[in-house]
Structure prediction request, 127 residues.
Amino acid sequence: MIRPCLLAALAVGLAAPVPAQTPPAGPKIDLQASGAGTGSGDGSATASGKITLAAPWQLSIHVVTIRYQKDGSTKTLNAFVPVKGDKFTTDVGLKKGSYRVWAVIDVKDADGREKQISSDPQSVSIP
Prediction:
């Protein structure tokens, strides 16, 4: 009599759904970029953002690379910007045109394994 009840309890326990486990949030860069022209064929692009690091991630270096790539070109202009706390900001002079802008930085986990993360690219126009 006890055996069928025990088997029924085990069967129900095994068939119960396992709660979904969400993976821990990884490191990410949120970037905001904008551009302004002077009216004489040049201007500036402002890039600022925040780096979000969930445990066990930490910064490998405290300098973020902001990359500017003019539409139709394969070359990039790289600005090296110090990270203060978890934020960064920079202003770079550029020629008139449309640019793709993104941020890149290296992070490491608790075991010292490094990984490069980047932001989503933004479009910036210098009129």
Observations:
- Helices lie at 2-15.
- The beta strands are 28-37, 42-52, 58-59, 63-70, 77-82, 87-95, 97-108, 114-118, 122-126.
